[in-house]
Amino acid sequence: MNTLQRYIIREIVPLFIFGNVLFVVFLLLEKLINLADLFFTKNVPGLLIAQTVIYYLPSFLMITIPTSALMASMVGFGRMSSDSEITVMKAAGAGGVFFLKPAAAVGIGAFLLSLVMSVYLMPLGSTLAINNLTKIAKSISVKDMKENEMYDEIPGLLFYADKRPDDNEFGKIVVIDKNTGTIITAETGAIVPSEEAALVMNFSNGRVVAETAGDERTVVRFGEMAMNLPFELKDKFSKRDEYFMTMTELAENFGEHVNYRFEFSKRLALPVAGLLMGILGMSLGIFFHRSGRSIGIPLSLGLTLFYYMIFFTSLNLARAGAMDAFFAPWLANIFFTAVTAVFAYRVLK
Amino acid sequence: MRNMGRRFKIILAAAGGVVLLLALFSCSGSDKRVKGYVPPSNVFEITDFEMLTGREGANYRLTAVKASFNRIENIAELTDITVEFEDGEEKITARADRGYYLQNRYLVAEGNIRGKTDDLSFETSESGIMNYDFESYTGTIENDVVCMQGSNTIRADRAEMDFKTKITEFKGNVSISYFM
Amino acid sequence: MKKFHVYFIKQFLKLAFFIQIFVVILNIVANTSMHTKLMAKHNISFLSLLVFESIELPSAIYESMPMALAITTMVTIIMMIRSNELLAYVSLGGRLRDLLFPLLGIGAVVFCILMFMADRVNPWVENARKKYETEQFDRQPYVTKGKLTDVWMKDGEEGFVHMELVDPINREFFDITFYRMDDSFEIDRVTSIEDAKPRGGKWELSKIKVYDIKPRPELILTQDNNTVESRLFSDLADLPVNKPKFLSLGELSKIIKLLKKQKLNAAAYELMVFKSYGHAISAVIIMFLVFPVCVNFSRHSSYIISAVNALALAVAYWLSVSSFQSLGKTGVMSPLLVSIIPNILFLAVAVYLVYRRETAS
After folding, report:
1. Distance of residue B52 Cα from the nearest chain A Cα, in angstroms
2. What is the 3-state secondary structure (H, E, C) of chain C?
3. Is B28 on the interface with A (CB under 8 A)?
4. Domain residues of chain A, as ranges?
5. C101 and C193 share a domain?
6. Which GO molecular function annotations are given, in alphabetical order (chain B) (predicted)?
7. Nearest CA in chain C to B12
8. Is residue C291 part of a domain?
9. Is A229 in contact with B42 (Cβ distance < 8 A)?
10. Beta bridge partners of A201
């Protein structure tokens, strides 16, 4: 790798990093508001949220690395083409292989990074993220309950309070158990979340009005009432999903379902896309410099979309049994290898 | 580029600071985690417990100094109990040291049962037991039952009462002392 | 409108189109790849999943449009600086602050688009998506104006009312229970009604039972039917019956009015309305923020550094808008304030940056 080639790599790598950051920001955009909610209204510790976002990064990066590789090498080589630096290098005797080396180096870098993500970090990150989500789901809180509000964020219960002197203190509070229609009214009440997804409530000077059998009504009056109401959270984060399984676990389950075979093969196929996109970006960047950069961008959009369309179609075929599950993820790569070869040949001959 | 970079970092830090400030500001009054005594899950610990309920014309009042109600099993453990029955004709009250109120229907009371109606009173020893079914208006008292009406006294091991028919049946070592 | 401004707008819109498409593709690919589990769970084909994700496109565009415009501003300015067009403009006496006007024009148009989307398109998307999911995934018939079950409301100062079923189409209520509260904030009377049906301007109630709760629970009155005037039933009958995300801004305002009449806190709904305005204005402010940061005429400037600075500022703005929104939910600040403060704050930063940029260059 001589100085010029290292210069090309130094031109492309910052773009690659910036591309990944940009795409991850876009993917995180919508979730940002929910995360802010978790922090402010559900009183989930900020560290736990930041940790969960970081654990989820590998699964985002699996998607953004190939796209960033394509965009980075295309914009990098495109910029050098339009500034005639490529022409100067060619005039100085740089042949086809000269440009292929830095592009392939960036592609291999993307390949290795993506491989580490898909084989090791993504399953590990997803599992840790699910543990955090379960912990986050456990942090039940009434912190965002306001005065004179019919507050029904807590499953099965409805709260109402005339006064709220402090975060956990309430004046003239009503708690309605929606399942039984039982109503608790109290002069004052304190509600504090406990560690185990439960609310500890202390009421004073109040009454409970409940409907008993035969349409009769029962009233219980109390001086003090303390209760500890746990909330059973349906465990919607099932761990058996193939995303969370390591390669060895997938290998052990090959016979069970086509998903595991497809997932195993996919984790090796997607990183290769990073390599292909790195080289393809180079060809596009150089090839389209004459008509300016604006053609390059829509073309890379189309190619990215096309790649994922083939990929998801092969997933569908594999599930329907019309294609072998090991081969299916590689279909898109085969097609893109051909496209890359054609473009590279035309540009570098 | 150099001087703009430095100034820009200050602005960025300011923007970041604002967000951090908000975060700290808003959770300064953050939820206090639970301190002190926490009752077991699904248990209501009640002091000065008083329950009023009715069944087809009959009204009940059940009080206890302390009650611990398990909402899953629908059982309330009561301490220092008084129970009142009133159906427009008669009013019966009784007390006991402790007991259970089960499934919104049965009362099981133990220890020093004392009770009275308009014209008679009854009591048991320290190990007395009283069972009462709010739905069928029937109940039993056991262990050295003594029933007094004026100067007349009935002693027995067990008394079975029916508040509807107003009949009380005494069983086991029954002895009566009766003055004309 | 100077020629340069027209040229600037044309470049801007061309790039905006591609960048928005790119964001949409990224969104679809990410959502689809994360939701492939649905294919197994509901036994549906990939095509149905793709249609399901594509229905959410308008909402994805709505959410990402401000950030996409920020990136567009960045790319437009950087390309103009690289081609020295901006330098020529400034050299011929053009002032940077004048370029804010085209951005303002674009911002105004985007404001109207985003407001229309918040009012009409997003509710339609949520409805269409729910309908598709119910019919294709769960294979159940979907009733758009569904019934409302297990409704709890506060009846002004009177107390609370529970309705097992509200049928807005026929304007009927079933299994209604009124819990009246006395001055010492205790329930003193419970009235249960089997159903309530409209009769002219009044309401015909059937199978009424009234219990006194104080001093002891006692059934004091039973009636077969009775026709009464009820403001509560009339208000509730024409209340939009869907979840907030299915409602247009007009319907949300109707709910706010009713809640206020019931002396209930409507902050949650007000927040949604102000959030739509805040989101629409954010497109203008984020463009104003990114514009000065990308303008850099020095010879050894790197467009990567400008891009990173612009992205960092845009994310900081987005983060503070989200944080303020959540603060509004906790009730620490009023919904109006939390929608205004971050925008005013960062507008001031933008104006300051433009001023600094203009005096520096």
Report:
1. 5
2. CCHHHHHHHHHHHHHHHHHHHHHHHHHHHHHHHHCHHHHHHHCCCHHHHHHHHHHCHHHHHHHHHHHHHHHHHHHHHHHHHHCCHHHHHHHCCCCHHHHHHHHHHHHHHHHHHHHHHHHHHHHHHHHHHHHHHHHHHCCCCCCCCCCEEEEEEEECCCEEEEEEEEECCCCEEEEEEEEEECCCCCEEEEEEEEEEEEECCEEEEEEEEEEECCCCCEEEEEEEEEEECCHHHHHHHCCCCCCHHHCCHHHHHHHHHHHHHCCCCCHHHHHHHHHHHHHHHHHHHHHHHHHHHHCCCCCCCCHHHHHHHHHHHHHHHHHHHHHHHHHHHHCCCCHHHHHHHHHHHHHHHHHHHHHHHHHHC
3. no
4. 3-139+238-348, 156-230
5. no
6. lipopolysaccharide transmembrane transporter activity
7. C313
8. yes
9. yes
10. A191, A227
How many CB atoms are located within 10 Å of the residue B37 CB? 10
Nearest CA in chain C to B15: C316
Give the pLDDT band of residue B28 (cuts 50, 70, 90).
very low
Q: Which of B30, C188, B158 is nearest to A183 (CA)?
A: C188
C13 and C114, same domain (yes or no):
yes
| B34 close to A (CB below 8 A) | yes
Residues C133 and C153 in one domain: no
- CATH code of the domain occupying B43-177: 2.60.450.10
C156 contacts chain A (CB < 8 A)? no
Residues 221-240 on A with a CB inside 8 Å of B are 221-230
User: A65 vs chain B: nearest CA distance in angstroms?
Assistant: 27
pLDDT digits (tens, 9 = 90+) for C220-236: 889 998 998 888 888 77
Q: Which residues of A touch C67 (CB under 8 A)?
A: 25-26, 29
Whether A40 contacts chain B with CB within 8 A: yes
Domain containing residue C106? 2-140+267-360
Q: Are residues C18 and C106 in the same domain?
A: yes
Residue A294 has pLDDT above 60, yes or no: no
Asked if B30 and A143 come within 8 Å (Cβ–Cβ), the reply is yes
CA distance C11 to chain B (A): 26
C134 and C281 assigned to the same domain: yes
Residues C52 and C161 in one domain: no
Same domain, C36 and C118: yes
Q: Does B15 touch chain C (CB under 8 A)?
A: yes
Question: What are the pLDDT digits (tens) for C20-36?
Answer: 888 888 777 777 777 77
- Same domain assignment for residues C135 and C271: yes
Nearest by CB to A14, which of C26, C63, C304?
Answer: C304
Interface of A with C in 161-180 (CB under 8 A): 162, 172, 174, 176, 178
Residue C248 lies in a domain: no
pLDDT digits (tens, 9 = 90+) for A150-161: 888 888 889 999
Q: Are C255 and C266 in contact (CB under 8 A)?
A: yes
- How distant is the Cα of C200 from the closest Cα of chain A, in angstroms? 31
Instruction: Name the residue ranges covered by the structural domains of chain B.
Output: 43-177
In chain A, which residues have their Cβ closer than 8 Å to the Cβ of B104? Answer: 212-213, 218
Please indicate, yes or no, if residue C233 is contained in any of the structural domains. Answer: yes
What pTM does this model have? 0.75
B-chain residue closest to A212, CA distance: B104
